[in-house]
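Practice problem 4.
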């Protein structure tokens, strides 16, 4: 029996999933934990991690260590994504984490992040064709899924925290700021040439901002239905997504915090976080949006199972 501890340090949050794996490759999720650390806060154009976000992150990692230290036979897979990947002071931060927590973070490439998203999706959802999109705090991963295989994948440097801070989208939204943000994100997305080959496919959406759409919809359904659908595998129309984004843009930060299903600590970055999905929906004539609760962390789990239990 092994307890696989997966730590995923993103730009907005750090998450930990603990899975108990038996000798035959079967697994049970024993715990899931999340802390909003906003590591990419105020990185700016110089791309340096600031002292306070680093302090918050290390404190969260210490609390995670206290939790997984209660388990036996622990294997730790700890990865860092866009914020650390882009940071000029990456080496200093990684040493600080190792010295203060004992955790060795593996900074993965955008391409690897996208591939792990792919593993998390295809092993948990019955989808064979579509576009997989993961919008994080400082990067967005896009994948072309064809006949169950990953045909193309890319990571681009736009995300919820980056767009919201750079274009002043945290509170009341000015038309000029939104226009500049949409243009900047659109220019980055337009560099992905293979997107021009894919139209009228479903979009499989993951990442905190994208999943917020499904969570808001689910909270609305809770007033009318006894059997509330899970976010994972939920299907929504592009029109629903467009209408919801339009509503959120019309609200200020305080008003957004009162929307059921929208986490209060995401209210200042949700507009920037939903710009990528709105552009992809508009440009690719997406047929429907399918939401996934499984992505990078689950991809690491399935990658571990493939490598260690394939012949069992």
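Answer key:
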């Amino acid at each position: 029996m092994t307890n696989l501890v997966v730590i995923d340090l993103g730009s907005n949050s750090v998450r930990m999933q603990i899975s108990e794996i038996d000798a035959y490759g079967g697994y049970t999720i024993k715990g899931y934990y999340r802390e909003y650390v906003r590591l990419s806060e105020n990185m700016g154009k110089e791309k340096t991690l600031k002292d306070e976000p680093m302090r918050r992150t290390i404190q969260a990692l210490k609390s995670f260590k206290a939790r997984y230290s209660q388990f036996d036979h622990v294997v730790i897979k700890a990865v860092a994504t866009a914020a650390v990947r882009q940071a000029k002071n990456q080496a200093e931060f990684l040493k600080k984490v190792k010295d203060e927590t004992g955790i060795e973070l593996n900074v993965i490439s955008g391409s690897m992040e996208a591939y792990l998203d792919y593993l998390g999706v295809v092993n948990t959802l019955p989808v064979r064709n579509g576009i997989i999109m993961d919008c994080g705090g400082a990067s967005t991963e896009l994948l072309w899924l064809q006949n169950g295989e990953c045909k193309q994948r890319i990571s681009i440097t736009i995300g919820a925290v980056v767009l919201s801070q750079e274009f002043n989208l945290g509170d009341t939204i000015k038309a000029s700021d939104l226009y500049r943000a949409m243009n900047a994100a659109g220019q980055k997305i337009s560099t992905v040439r293979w997107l021009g080959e894919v139209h009228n496919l479903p979009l499989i959406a993951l990442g905190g901002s994208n999943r917020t759409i499904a969570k808001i919809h689910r909270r609305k359904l809770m007033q009318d239905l006894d059997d509330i659908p899970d976010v994972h595998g939920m299907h929504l129309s592009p029109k629903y997504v467009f209408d919801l984004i339009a509503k959120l843009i019309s609200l200020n930060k305080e008003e957004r915090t009162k929307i059921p299903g929208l986490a209060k600590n995401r209210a200042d970055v949700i507009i920037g976080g939903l710009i990528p999905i709105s552009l992809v929906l508009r440009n690719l004539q997406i047929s429907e949006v399918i939401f996934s609760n499984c992505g990078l962390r689950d991809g690491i789990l399935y990658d571990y199972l493939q490598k260690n239990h394939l012949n069992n």
